[in-house]
Design goal:
- The protein starts with a strand and ends with a strand.
- Strands 3-2-1-4-5 form a 5-stranded parallel sheet. It has a 5-stranded mixed sheet with strand order 6-10-7-8-9. The chain has a 5-stranded antiparallel sheet with strand order 13-12-11-14-15.
- The protein is of the alpha/beta class and 369 residues long.
- 28% of the residues lie in helices and 25% in strands.
- It is globular, with a radius of gyration of 22 Å.
Length: 369
């Protein structure tokens, strides 16, 4: 009988409750026990886990590595999927391996390249992947110069932090004056150029932003699974155009993703995003972690989380081809349990956990169109 697999997800996104569901519904019918940690006691990933702990606040990256090594040793973790402090953790891969834990994460070199978007754009451009024109700005004058150059070329300018994830800090520049219309409806990503310039000059603090043209839809997020041999095992594009979502295997999206994943050591799960500049796909962002929407590949008959865990354990799943591409769909929100009691929480006894039945083409929170 195969032993139970213990997987730990640290301070991860709420959507990864679906990642956890797929691990339990794995096609190998393998028992999986999931440990989760978070700083928010009401995170749904804590309620979805078999064991859970609140993470200590205020730890330095080095101190967090020590905390993580202790968690792995005490919990008997087989596979650790790090999000928080990923860069520090992957530099200690050998120490985790000595504790019996495999890291489901890329190489330290890959994480370093893609932590900073400017460094990332320079690196991928050097291997032939198209990137949008971009300027790194730190002052109001640099911002104005970049915006004027973009506008002179017929583009609408936007900016985002040089380091960050999830669209945090993304804004689109407008020269329309602030008016009452800006106070109607829901908040908008548009921000008045004069207000941004005034705020920069008043603060006296430098920023670290990338200014670039606003790119057009569709946005295509290519979910990749790459082995430690730098060979791609899985690549499927998820398309987003407004509310409508879908899937693609079109090589104009997959080929540049393959160049990046294989060329930069993006081992295990990564997510590489593209948009259009005119009619040409260009790189938008590279995430060195599983995407929050990874579970949506279940609509194509693919269980990517489990294939990744197999790969981390040295059980190579081989090339994973989706048996079909699911129909277009949209994403909706739904209720999810939170813990009714104070953490920590864990099972009373070490009992065998049965795997849940395989559910190939369904995913909670996804509706067909």
């Amino acid at each position: 009988m195969l032993s139970r697999v213990r997987v730990w997800l640290n301070r991860t996104y709420a959507e990864n409750v679906f990642f956890m569901d797929q691990l339990r519904r794995n096609p190998s019918d393998r028992a999986v026990e999931i440990h989760a940690t978070h700083g928010d006691p009401d995170s749904p990933v804590l309620a979805a886990a078999d064991t859970a702990d609140l993470e200590p606040e205020g730890l330095s990256p080095a101190a967090y590595v020590e905390y993580a090594l202790d968690q792995c040793a005490r919990r008997g973790i087989d596979v650790f999927v790090p999000r928080l402090h990923q860069a520090a953790i992957v530099r200690h891969r050998a120490e985790f391996a000595a504790a019996g834990t495999a890291l489901l994460a890329p190489t330290p070199e890959a994480v370093a390249v893609f932590e900073d978007k400017a460094t990332a754009y320079q690196a991928v451009h050097s291997v032939g992947v198209p990137v949008p024109p971009w300027w790194r700005v730190r002052t109001a004058d640099e911002l104005l110069a970049a915006v004027e150059e973009l506008e002179a070329s017929g583009h609408r300018a936007c900016f985002k932090p040089a380091a960050g994830a999830g669209g945090v800090g993304f804004r689109v520049i407008t020269r329309a004056p602030f008016s009452l219309s800006n106070l109607e409806g829901f908040p908008s990503p548009y921000v008045q150029l004069d207000l941004v310039v005034e705020a920069l000059r008043r603060s006296g603090q430098p920023v670290d932003w990338l200014v670039m043209p606003r790119l057009e839809q569709p946005e295509v997020s290519v979910d990749c699974l790459t082995g430690p041999d730098n060979r791609l095992r899985l690549a499927v594009g998820r398309t987003k155009n407004g509310r409508r979502r879908g899937f693609t295997l079109d090589e104009r999206w997959l080929e540049p993703a393959r160049l990046i994943a294989e060329g930069f050591g993006l081992h295990h799960l990564s997510n590489i995003q593209f948009r259009l500049l005119g009619d040409r796909p260009v790189l938008l962002d590279v995430n060195t972690r599983p995407a929050g929407g990874l579970h949506q590949l279940s609509l194509c008959g693919v269980n990517a989380p489990w294939a990744a865990v197999q790969l981390a354990l040295g059980e190579d799943p081989g090339v994973v081809e989706p048996p079909f591409l699911g129909q277009d769909y949209t994403v909706i929100s739904g209720p999810r349990s939170v813990l009714p009691v104070v953490l920590p929480r864990q099972r009373e006894a070490e009992v065998a956990l049965p795997a849940l039945p395989v559910q190939v083409a369904s995913a909670v929170g996804v509706l067909p169109l």
